[in-house]
C-alpha cells in the first residue's frame, strides 16, 4: 500500500468491488497516514487500532453484501460533539466529557451502511467559533500552511478529509462551521437544511439552528453520504441556464486576493450558463449579526451555561468560549421576542431579494487569518469569518461550499452556493459540474474526481412551456414563471408557420400567435420549464383569448406553448415581419 491510495468514497468502493483492495488493507493505510501526520491536533480520541482491524476483518468477511452496503469499508471521522458509542464526547472541553452507550442517529446510519468510525475530531469548544483555535486540544494543522487557521468550529473534521486521513467526515453547522473549514481546506462542505439530518446524539450549540454537516473531497462523495444519512427530498435542479445572486456590497476585509478570486468565480459561473444578479445583502448581513450580537447567544447559554458557570480551572473551559456563552445572561425575554420579530422582518426582506434566483453565490469567507491574528483579535476576526455564513440556518436554507482556487501565497479560496430548503441534491449536482469545470487538487491529496457515472442526478418532473411575449425574461409577466419555480431552458424560434399579432388592450400588452397553413413566419421564443405540480397555477393566470397548445419549434420538435384563438386577431396589428415581441416593443420606443 502507498500514500497514492485514493480514499475517495467511490474510488474505495470501486476497488473493493473489483477485488483489488480489501478493507483491512485500507484501514492499515489509514493508520499509516495518521502515524505519519504526527501531532497534527486533528484527533481528540480514536477508535483503538485493534478494534479498527477487527471491524475491517468483519467487513471483509461480508464482501458478498457489498451491493447493499453503500458505504462498505469507508473510513470516516466524527466531530467530537456528536456521539459515537464507546468513545468519549468532549465537545473540546475535558471537564465536560462523557462516554455515550449509543451513537448519534446519523452516525448509526452510516455505520449500518458499512462505514468505519476512525475517531473523534477536534473543534472550537462547544462548537462556538469559526476559527478552529478555541480548543485546549490544540489547533488542527491547516495542511496548506500551519500558520493559518483551519477554520471552525469543525476544524479537525475538515483537516482530516483535506489531509487524506479519511474518506469523509461529519461536522456540525450552526453559523458556518460546515462551510468555512471547507473553504480553508479546499474541500466540499455540505450544509443540509436544518432538520434534514437527525440531531439526536449531538451536543447542542443553538438547538433551534444546529445541523450536522458533511465534508468530502467531491460532491459525488458527499451525495453518497447524503443518501445514507437521510432521505433527500426533490427540488428543481439548477439548469443549463440559471440566475445566481451576487451580494451588494461585497466585503473582503482588505483581502484583495480573495476579492479577485471571487470575481473570477463569478466569471466561471457565467461561463457555465449563469446570469449574475446583484442583490441587497443588508437583510442577510443584519440577520447574521443577530447570532452573536443578539438574543440567540442566550440559546448557547441554555445549552452549556450551567456547566461553564460551575466548572473549575481544571475543566479546560476556553476563555473566549466562556465569555461568549455566558454573555447570553445579558439578554432578557423581551430581547428574545424583539429578536424574533426582527428576524421575521429580515427573513421576508431576504426572501424578496432571492425571488427569481436559483441560488446565491457567496464567498465562503471574506478572508483567512493566521493563528497569531486570532490571538490578538479572537472575537472580531471570528465575526468577520461569519459575514457570509451566519444567516443561512436562520432562514432555513441549504448550502454547499465549493473550492475555487488559491491566493498567491497558496491558501485556498472557495464559494458557497445557498439555495432554498431541501435543495441539497440540486446543489450537489451543480457542484459536480463546477468541480469538473474548475480542475483543482482535491483537498491536499492526490485523489481524483469520481467517474461521471457517479455524478449526482436530480430527478424532477418538469413541464416545458414556450413563451413569446410578456412572459419572456425581463418583461412584465416573467415573474409569473419565476415565482412558481420557472427556469429558462433555451432561447430559439418557432417553425416558420405562425402569424404574430399585437393584441389590443393592456397593460401589459400581449401578443397573439396563430398557426397558419400559408404565409407564416418564424417567431422568437424562450422555452421555460415549470415543476409539473405548478402548471395548473400558471394556467389560471392566462386570460382569454390566450391559452396553451402545441407549438412547433424551428428544429421540428414540439413543446407546450402560448397560442391565440383566431377570432381575437381580426382587429389586432400583424407584427409577424418583426420576428418577435422584443423587436415590436423596441419599435414602439423609436
Strand fraction band? 15-25%
- Major sheet strand order: 1-3-2-4-6-5-10-11-9-7-8
**Structural class computed from helices and strand pairing:** alpha+beta
- Major sheet size, sense and barrel closure: 11 strands, mixed
**Coarse morphology:** globular
- The Cα radius of gyration reads 27 Å
How many helices? The count is: 18
- Report how far apart the termini are: 74 Å
* Average predicted confidence as pLDDT: 95
Describe, in plain words, how this protein is organized in 3D.
This protein is an alpha+beta fold and 590 residues long. It has two domains: 9-454, Amidase signature (AS) domain (Amidase signature (AS) enzymes, Alpha-Beta Complex), CATH 3.90.1300; 462-588, Gamma-glutamyl cyclotransferase-like (Hypothetical upf0131 protein ytfp, Roll), CATH 3.10.490.10. The protein contains 18 helices and 19 strands. The protein has helices spanning 9-18, 23-37, 49-60, 105-112, 155-162, 180-185, 219-229, 256-271, 282-293, 297-310, 319-326, 333-354, 371-376, 380-385, 424-437, 479-482, 535-539, 581-588, and strands spanning 43-46, 75-79, 116-121, 168-172, 188-191, 212-216, 242-248, 274-280, 359-363, 398-406, 412-419, 462-467, 487-493, 498-502, 511-515, 524-531, 546-552, 558-564, 573-574. Strands 1-3-2-4-6-5-10-11-9-7-8 form an eleven-stranded mixed beta sheet, sandwiched between helices. Strands 13-16-12-18-17 form a five-stranded mixed beta sheet, with no helix packed on it. The chain has a three-stranded antiparallel beta sheet with strand order 15-14-19, with no helix packed on it. Helix 4 links the parallel strand 2 (75-79) and strand 3 (116-121). The longest helix is centred in the middle third of the chain and has 22 residues, at 333-354. The radius of gyration is 27 Å and the shape is globular. The mean pLDDT is 95.
